[in-house]
Write a structure and sequence with these properties.
0% strand; single chain; 55% helix
Length: 77
């Protein structure tokens, strides 16, 4: 009985992880950014949050920043 509980808990954790990363796919990049700089909103090029991270075009990054004006207010001027 005890082994089944651990199995069910493990399966539940895996399913929840898949669901979270399905609905929030960019969370992976935020986790990587936290690990590199200590700041989830910093790009790969250092602490310049206005420059797009690797693999993101200028247009996509400007659109993303427009959704978060409280974080990127100095970039949107």
């Amino acid at each position: 009985m005890g082994k089944k509980i651990f199995l069910y808990i493990g399966i539940t954790i895996v399913i929840l992880g898949l669901v979270i990363f399905t609905f929030f796919p960019n969370m992976i990049y935020a986790i990587k950014a936290i690990g590199k700089t200590g700041n989830a909103f910093a790009s790969d090029s250092g602490d310049d949050i206005c420059s797009p991270p690797a693999g993101t075009s200028e247009e996509e990054w400007k659109e993303h920043m427009s959704h978060h004006p409280n974080i990127y207010k100095e970039c949107l001027n």
